[in-house]
Structure formats: C-alpha cells, structure tokens
Amino acid sequence: MSFFVERSFIIDRAQRFHQSEIRNLKSQIMTPDGIGLKTG
User: Fold this and answer.
1) Mean pLDDT of 15-36
2) Average pLDDT score over residue span 3-14
3) What's the CA gap between 40 and 38, in Å, rounded?
4) Which run of H or of E encompasses 31?
5) Does residue 35 have a pLDDT over 70?
6) Which CA distances in Å does 20 have to 4, 26, 40?
7) End-to-end CA distance of the chain
8) Nearest partner of 22 among 33, 30, 32, judged by Cα
9) What is the mean pLDDT of residues 3-17?
10) Handedness of CA 25, 27, 29, 35 (dihedral sign)
11) Cα–Cα distances in angstroms (integers) from residue 29 to residues 11, 16, 35, in the given order
12) Would you say 5 and 12 are in contact if contact means Cβ atoms under 8 Å apart?
C-alpha cells in the first residue's frame, strides 16, 4: 500500500512540474523579448 501511495505521489509531482514547465514555455512564447532572448 505504501508503495502505491509513494508512486502516485511521485506521478503527481511529475505532472505538476510538467504543467509548470508548459506554463513557462507559453509565457516565453507570449513575450518575444522575454527570458529566452535575454539569456541568448
């Protein structure tokens, strides 16, 4: 049972991280002179 809980917790964390990554990408695309160009 604890293994199942740990696994679902890891999956939930991965999904949240993925969603935040997508949000960051969308915000970068929305603003052309944003983070991407500043670091480049």
Assistant:
1) 78
2) 89
3) 5
4) none
5) no
6) 24, 10, 22
7) 47
8) 30
9) 90
10) negative
11) 27, 20, 10
12) no
Token couple for 3 = 């293994």
Token pair listed for 40: 């480049």
The neighbour count for residue 28, using CB atoms within 10 Å, is: 13
Contacts of 27 (CB under 8 A, 6+ apart): 34
d(Cα 27, Cα 20) in Å, to the nearest integer? 11
Query: 13 pLDDT band (50/70/90 cuts)?
Result: very high
Average pLDDT over residues 35-40: 54
Q: Which two tokens stand for residue 36?
A: 């991407």
Mark out the alpha helices in 1-40 (DSSP H runs). Answer: 2-30, 35-39
* Residue appearing with tokens 């890891």: 10
